Amino acid sequence: MNSSTDRIERQVLIKAPRAKVWQALADAESFGEWFGVALKGKRFVAGEPCEGNITYPGYEHLVMKVVVDRVEPERLLSFRWHPYAIDPDVDYSQEPTTLVTFELEESSGGTLLRVVESGFDRIPAHRRQEAFRMNNSGWEEQMNNIDAYVASH
């Protein structure tokens, strides 16, 4: 396994207490607001699926489906999903998933939020490179989104 192609890592220092960052991350409705997915009335519960329509312009026809892996209050949230599963005519359910892990830690000046998405080396070869490329830039954007969301709420 090549670590440079198997995982994406991003982090952002958010100038807010850990409890506030956790609320934006672990409350499904708040997560949906900054992430761009309609999760109104949804909850993140370990072991349970959670899904909602993407709200990002041009992608509204897509449904984001995750299975929540772990929820450790104010420390860690993780889920599994099919990365860059954007073709509504493709059944991705038989493909391996990637694991997305958000970790929070106190830092001087706020809360350090780290996201790691791993498992790309197991994605079918014909989709692997594009899924990695799109999510690589996507996580950069999402770290900016949660930072802005926390600052404005």
Task: Report on the architecture of this protein.
This is Vanillate O-demethylase oxidoreductase VanB. Belongs to the AHA1 family. Keywords: Methyltransferase, Transferase. It comes from Dyella choica. With 153 residues, this protein is α+β, with helices and mostly antiparallel strands. It has helices at residues 3-6, 18-26, 28-35, 125-152, and strands spanning 7-14, 49-53, 63-72, 76-81, 98-107, 110-118. The protein starts with a helix and ends with a helix. It has one domain: 2-Layer Sandwich (Alpha-D-Glucose-1,6-Bisphosphate, Chain A, domain 4). Strands 1-6-5-4-3-2 form a six-stranded antiparallel β-sheet.
**Named CATH architecture:** 2-Layer Sandwich
For this structure, the CATH topology is Alpha-D-Glucose-1,6-Bisphosphate, Chain A, domain 4
Radius of gyration: 15 Å
Uncertain ranges:
none
Largest sheet: 6 strands, antiparallel
Helix content percent band: 25-40%
E-strand count: 6
- Label the structural class: alpha+beta
Helices and strands, in order, run as: HEHHEEEEEH
Family: Belongs to the AHA1 family.
Protein name: Vanillate O-demethylase oxidoreductase VanB
Domain Activator of Hsp90 ATPase homologue 1/2-like C-terminal: 15-150
InterPro entries: ASHA1/2-like_C (IPR013538), START-like_dom_sf (IPR023393)
How would you summarize what this structure contains?
With 153 residues, the protein is α+β, with helices and mostly antiparallel strands. 32% of the residues lie in helices and 31% in strands. The protein has 4 helices and 6 strands; from the N terminus they run H-E-H-H-E-E-E-E-E-H.
